[in-house]
Amino acid sequence: MSLAAATQTSSFFGWMPIVACVLAGLTLYRWNRRNKTVAHRQMERMLSDLEAIKHQVLLISTDLPPSRAAIRTIGYLESVSAVEAASDAEYQLAECDALLTLARNALAKGANAIVGLRKTHAHYDQPGSQWRVSRVIYSGTAVVVVT
What we know:
By secondary structure, the chain is of the alpha+beta class. It has a single domain, classed as 2-Layer Sandwich (Translation Initiation Factor IF3), CATH 3.30.110.70. The chain is built from 3 helices and 4 strands, in the order ααββαββ. It has helices at residues 3-7, 11-54, 88-108; strands at 58-59, 70-80, 113-125, 132-145. It has a 4-stranded mixed β-sheet. β3 (113-125) and β4 form a beta hairpin. The termini are far apart.
């Protein structure tokens, strides 16, 4: 038996790394598309919820509502997004999530307006990864105004 015969492999094994790379690429492509579709649906749902709640709660960045008097101050509210944003789409989702949660908290406490609305965000390194992620924080003062 010669040495060449013992080390010779079929052409099938020569194509295996290429086939494996193509399959891995297809899997990553489908995973990315599915995540974008899910995020898009979540964003549409949150935006519709936010539009509905804006009719119940007045969101104002100034300290006093224009041409309206505050009857009662309920207190300071803060909301941190549940979404850890690593991309632009996730950051927009985190913004909607934090603002929607803040508005719902204000409604639950009996407020019909939030004054002094402020947005901040925190960046941090995700443990075990080289990626930086962000969380969006909305804060403001819940008040009851004359409607």
